[in-house]
Amino acid sequence: MEIVPELDNRLKDPLYSQLYQYFKAEIEKSALQRNTHLPSIRYLADTLNVSHTTVQMAYQQLLADGYIKSKERSGYYVAELDSDFINSADIRSPNTSSAGSAGENTGGVLYDFFITGCQQRKLVILMTR
């Protein structure tokens, strides 16, 4: 499988976010199947002509959101997702507009914590028993 995300420096979203969104979409539409081995950080950075930090930040966000898993000395793999996770995943994404805007009083917490810091927007906390 060839991974060819289109990253554009002219867009408002940072490159790591564009890469994160690409992998997230590919995983959600099952273009990347469970347990698919993802390219190493170094290989993907060199292929896309971006810094290693860009790829590392995208992978760390995917890891934190449960889209991928890490195996020591082996790399990153697509995690197993169930349909409930995919349907609620867009709520947890730091770059979605469905989470509300800063200062909007729709209930819930008004801070969103993610890899680059804290943004003042609605954070939906999903509780499981």
TrEMBL record:
Q: Do the record's keywords include tRNA processing?
A: no
Give the Pfam families listed for this entry: GntR
PROSITE patterns in alphabetical order: HTH_GNTR
| Any one GO MF annotation of this record | DNA-binding transcription factor activity
Q: What is this protein called?
A: GntR family transcriptional regulator
Cross-referenced Gene3D superfamilies? Winged helix-like DNA-binding domain superfamily/Winged helix DNA-binding domain (1.10.10.10)
Entry superkingdom: Bacteria
The Swiss-Prot or TrEMBL record lists the needed cofactor(s) as: pyridoxal 5'-phosphate
HTH gntR-type domain location is 13-81
Q: What is the species listed in this Swiss-Prot or TrEMBL entry?
A: Sporolactobacillus shoreae
